[in-house]
C-alpha cells in the first residue's frame, strides 16, 4: 500500500471520530499523533515534547497544517513526506500571535474536538490512540531498519566497554552513537554491578560499572520508538549466566504468546506463570512487564485486566526483569510468527534458543569477556 492511500485511510478514520462526537473538525497537536499521521514527521524540537510545534486541523473537506513562521519551511522541506504535501492547506501565523488566531479563522472551538483538550475542546486522545496501534507495512519497514541499526550499534559499542568505565561514560558513548545515526535517544540507562541489584530504573551515575553491565535504550526514528536491552559480563559468573537465561526464558514465553487474537492480559498471565516456573515468583511485582509499542515506548502496559486483543502488525516490547538481569526487545506480530526486529536473524550478538510450541524464539545471551 502506498503512502497516499494509507494517509487517506487514516484521514477517513479520523473523520469517523469527528462524526461520532457530533463535531465539525479535529485538531491534532500531540507529537505521537502528528508523527503517525505524517508517517514520521517530527513535530518536536526537544526530545521531551508531548505537543507538536504545529497542528493538523481536519475538517470534512480539508486538512490544514497550522504552523508558525519559525517552523513552516523546515517541516515541509525536512519532515513531512513530499508525497503528502498536496493534501495540506498551509496556514502560517507569526510566532508572537499564536495558533488560536489562525485557527479561529477556519473554525470555532465549539465545533472542535482535539487530542489535547486545548481551547476548552473535548479531548478525544483516547479514541484516536488505537488507530496508531496497528502499523502499516511502510511503518513496519521503517521500524525494522531502526531495529537492525540499534542492534549493530550495541554490538559494536559494548565490545569496547571495560569494568573501569562509569555508567555515565557508557551512557554518553551509546547516546552519541545513536544520535550520530539520526536516532533520538529517548532513554539510555546503564546498570552496573551495584545498580543492577538496587534499582529497576537506574539513572546512570558517575561510578564504575564493575564486573557486569546491562544497558537499555528507547530509541526513536520517524516517530517509532524501539526498546532493547543488552548485557555483558567481564568475568564468568555461572549464577548470573543462569539467571540471565531464566530471564530470557520468561521473555521468550511472552514473545511466543504474542499471537493475533490473544489478549494482552493472557500474555501477562503467561509471563507470571513463567516467573513462577523459574522460581522468581514475586519478581514481576517489582517492575512493569512491557506491552504494546509503537509511537510511544509503551502504548499499553500489560496488566491482568488489559483487554486489548493483539493483531497483525502490532508491535510489542516485553521487558521481564529478575533483580540483576533483564531481557527486552521489540517485535512485530505477523500472521504466523513474531518478528523480533531489534534482534534480527543476522545479529552478531550471541543468542540462546528456546523452543515454544514448535517455534524457536532466540534471545540475546549475556556476552562474556
Brief synopsis:
With 369 residues, this protein is α+β, with helices and mostly antiparallel strands. The chain is built from 10 helices and 19 strands.
What does it look like?
- The protein has 10 helices and 19 strands.
- It has 2 domains: 3-132, 3-Layer(aba) Sandwich (Creatine Amidinohydrolase, Chain A, domain 1), CATH 3.40.350; 137-368, Alpha-Beta Complex (Creatine Amidinohydrolase).
- It has helices spanning 3-20, 31-37, 72-79, 99-104, 125-133, 137-158, 167-180, 195-198, 238-256, 264-277, and strands spanning 25-30, 51-58, 63-68, 88-93, 112-114, 122-123, 184-191, 212-221, 224-233, 290-293, 300-301, 315-318, 321-322, 325-326, 329-333, 338-340, 351-356, 359-364, 367-368.
- Helices cover 33% and strands 26% of the residues.
- Helix 6 packs across helix 7 (167-180) and helix 9 (238-256) runs antiparallel to helix 10.
- The chain has a 6-stranded mixed β-sheet with strand order 4-3-2-1-5-6. A 5-stranded antiparallel β-sheet has the order 11-10-12-15-16, covered by helices on one side.
- The protein is α+β, with helices and mostly antiparallel strands and 369 residues long.
Amino acid at each position: 500500500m502506498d503512502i497516499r492511500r494509507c494517509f487517506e485511510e487514516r484521514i477517513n478514520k479520523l473523520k469517523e471520530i469527528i462524526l461520532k462526537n457530533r463535531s465539525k473538525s479535529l485538531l491534532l497537536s500531540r507529537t505521537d499523533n502528528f508523527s503517525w499521521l505524517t508517517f514520521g514527521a517530527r513535530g518536536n524540537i526537544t526530545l521531551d515534547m508531548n505537543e507538536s510545534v504545529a497542528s493538523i486541523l481536519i475538517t470534512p473537506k480539508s486538512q490544514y497544517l497550522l504552523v508558525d513562521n519559525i517552523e513552516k519551511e523546515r517541516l515541509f522541506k525536512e519532515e513531512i513526506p513530499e508525497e503528502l504535501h498536496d493534501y495540506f492547506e498551509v496556514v502560517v501565523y507569526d510566532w508572537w500571535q499564536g495558533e488560536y488566531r489562525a485557527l479561529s479563522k477556519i473554525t470555532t472551538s465549539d465545533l472542535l474536538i482535539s487530542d489535547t483538550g486545548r481551547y476548552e475542546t473535548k479531548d478525544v486522545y483516547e479514541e484516536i490512540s488505537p488507530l496508531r496501534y496497528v502499523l502499516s507495512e511502510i511503518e513496519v519497514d521503517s521500524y525494522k531498519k531502526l531495529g537492525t541499526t540499534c542492534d549493530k550499534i550495541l554490538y559494536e559499542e559494548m565490545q569496547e566497554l571495560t569494568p573501569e568505565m562509569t555508567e555515565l561514560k557508557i551512557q554518553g558513548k551509546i547516546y552519541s552513537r545513536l544520535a550520530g545515526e539520526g536516532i533520538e535517544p529517548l532513554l539510555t540507562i546503564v546498570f552496573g554491578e551495584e545498580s543492577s541489584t538496587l534499582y529497576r530504573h537506574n539513572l546512570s551515575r558517575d561510578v564504575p560499572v564493575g564486573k557486569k553491565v546491562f544497558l537499555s535504550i528507547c530509541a526513536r526514528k520517524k516517530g517509532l520508538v524501539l526498546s532493547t536491552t543488552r548485557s555483558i559480563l567481564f568475568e564468568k559468573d555461572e549464577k548470573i549466566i543462569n539467571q540471565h537465561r531464566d530471564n530470557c526464558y520468561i521473555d521468550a514465553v511472552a514473545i511466543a504468546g504474542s499471537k493475533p487474537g490473544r489478549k494482552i492480559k493472557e500474555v501477562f498471565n503467561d509471563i507470571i506463570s513463567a516467573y513462577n516456573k523459574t522460581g522468581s515468583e514475586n519478581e514481576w511485582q517489582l517492575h512493569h512487564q512491557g506491552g504494546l509499542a509503537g509511537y510511544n515506548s509503551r502504548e499499553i502496559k500489560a496488566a491482568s485486566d488489559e483487554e486489548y486483543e493483539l493483531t497483525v502488525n502490532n508491535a510489542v516490547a516485553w521487558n521481564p526483569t529478575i533483580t540483576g538481569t533483564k531481557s527486552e526487545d521489540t517485535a512485530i506480530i505477523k500472521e504466523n510468527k513474531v518478528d523480533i526486529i531489534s534482534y534480527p536473524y543476522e545479529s552478531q550478538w550471541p543468542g540462546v534458543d528456546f523452543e515454544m510450541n514448535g517455534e524457536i524464539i532466540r534471545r540475546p545471551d549475556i556476552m562474556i569477556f
